[in-house]
Backbone:
């Protein structure tokens, strides 16, 4: 069956373009971005397909894809796109929109990792690895992956029991609060 | 030569060996590093994936603080470096972004404090020849694959101190240290970066690909300048081999550790005990085969 797709819903496209500051509409489907993408084999949609679906206004499919969460922000696509599209930047915007619009995120591990990391920064001004990992494990309820690394990392002094506080931690907490307010205005 | 130093969270914890070897190497080269006082996290990938304002404000807080030192900022972590540069660019190019950032950090900031990567400072300011002149223990015969990963050379609009597809700065330094550069095709391929914890299965595939190509190209060890690349290639090397097939154990060293060895620093001063894949055999090799150029300087 052939399905005709029409470029009728430009609302989503213009939103993504405004938030990311990059002209997703200029994508001419050369697929260069997808060819060099390190996580393409695991993605349900290739980056070039994501760009096309944004053009076509297929918001729901894009925001519920695992592709936007598997993107490793390696910037290979952004570096190579002949149309100068910052694809990695557009992926950032799509992750934010997926959270704001409560899209059905298929695999929540990346989101939970990001939340655990940022919570650690918010409290200490710097990342406290052990605390961040514990928070991540509580969020994902995955208590077994990587536990074999923990004794080794302690032995190699790569993990410490106590957080490193920055003396500016309070300022960081304030910045988080203000940044959350600023973000709502976008 | 003097810089304001932004260590970043990794160098304070999981990559303490990168921190130690960076400081030791800089001392040996007479490069002075002054830590940015009370520095805070750059936000890394979690911030730019979650909140665009925060992703610009966290680096800007540090750069604004660095201004008082009156020195260009240097970062050793490739990821911190990219975040600091990106924030500078956004604040400079976009008046609205600048307003937002200034409101968040509660101070004026124009995006004007220069940010350099340690490799940029070494290759473009200090110069490879000056490094070569200080080498007391040439790493003769050691075959090194330099692995740049993503953020040292990409995207060129942001970083731009080396070629985005074929960077050579680390290779030139490897040669200055007396070692042999290994040409290989994956020097800027991604290791999976921060998917390390959330999608370790993807990282195992990518790391295996990188490691097996470096080995095929004849590398005895790999040089890196990013704590995430290091975790994925060193700490996760065993996982990669378990999931995708045996790999000859290949030490992954920070470029600062390799240069430090050539400058005559010992394993302890360079934090080599932190490596998961031991570099002992490699250290022994360069200590026995390489004749110290100037006797008495080797510690
Ligand atoms: S490289 Fe650019 S133009 Fe080509 S498919 Fe990807 S986004 Fe579109
Ligand atoms: S930035 Fe993301 S989408 Fe682009 S090539 Fe890298 S992983 Fe793929």
Residues:
């Amino acid at each position: 069956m052939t399905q005709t797709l029409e470029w009728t819903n430009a609302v989503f496209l213009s939103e993504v373009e405004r938030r990311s500051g990059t002209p997703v509409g200029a994508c001419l489907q050369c697929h260069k971005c997808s060819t060099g993408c390190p996580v393409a084999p695991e993605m349900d949609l290739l980056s070039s397909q994501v760009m096309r679906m944004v053009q076509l206004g297929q918001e729901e499919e894009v925001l519920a894809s695992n592709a936007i969460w598997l993107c490793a922000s390696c910037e290979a696509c952004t570096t190579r796109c002949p149309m100068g599209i910052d694809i990695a930047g557009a992926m950032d915007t799509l992750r934010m929109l997926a959270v704001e619009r409560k899209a059905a995120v298929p695999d929540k591990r990346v989101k939970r990792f990001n939340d655990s990391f940022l919570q650690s920064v918010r409290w200490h001004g710097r990342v406290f690895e052990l605390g961040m990992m514990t928070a991540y494990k509580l969020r994902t309820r995955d208590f077994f992956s990587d536990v074999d690394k923990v004794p080794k990392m302690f032995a190699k002094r790569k993990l410490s029991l106590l957080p490193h506080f920055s003396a500016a931690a309070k300022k960081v907490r304030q910045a988080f609060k203000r940044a959350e307010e600023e973000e709502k205005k976008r | 030569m003097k810089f304001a130093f932004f260590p970043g969270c990794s160098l304070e914890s999981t990559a303490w060996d990168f921190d130690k070897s960076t400081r030791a190497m800089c001392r040996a080269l007479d490069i002075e590093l002054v830590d940015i006082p009370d520095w805070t996290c750059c936000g890394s990938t979690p911030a730019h994936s979650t909140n665009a304002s925060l992703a610009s404000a966290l680096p800007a807080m540090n750069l604004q603080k660095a201004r008082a030192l009156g020195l260009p900022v240097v970062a050793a972590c490739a990821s911190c470096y990219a975040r600091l540069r990106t924030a500078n660019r956004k604040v400079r190019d976009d008046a609205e972004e600048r307003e937002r950032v200034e409101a968040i950090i509660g101070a004026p900031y124009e995006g004007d404090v220069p940010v350099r990567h340690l490799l940029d400072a070494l290759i473009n300011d200090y110069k490879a020849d000056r490094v070569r002149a200080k080498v007391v223990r040439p790493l003769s015969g050691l075959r090194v694959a330099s692995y740049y990963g993503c953020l040292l050379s990409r995207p060129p609009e942001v970083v731009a101190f080396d070629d985005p597809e074929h960077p050579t700065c680390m290779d030139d330094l490897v040669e200055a240290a007396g070692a042999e550069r290994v040409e290989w095709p994956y020097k800027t391929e991604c290791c999976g970066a921060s998917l390390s914890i959330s999608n370790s299965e993807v990282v195992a595939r990518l790391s295996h690909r990188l490691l097996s190509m470096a080995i095929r190209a004849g590398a005895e060890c790999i040089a890196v300048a990013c704590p995430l690349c290091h975790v994925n290639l060193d700490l996760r090397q065993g996982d990669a081999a378990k999931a995708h097939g045996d790999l000859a154990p290949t030490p992954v060293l920070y470029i600062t550790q390799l240069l430090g060895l050539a400058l005559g620093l010992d394993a302890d001063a360079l934090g080599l005990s932190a490596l998961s894949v031991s570099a002992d055999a490699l250290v022994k090799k360069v200590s026995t085969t390489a004749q110290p150029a100037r006797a008495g300087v080797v510690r």
In short: Chain A touches chain B through 62 residues (CB under 8 Å). Chain A has a mean pLDDT of 90.
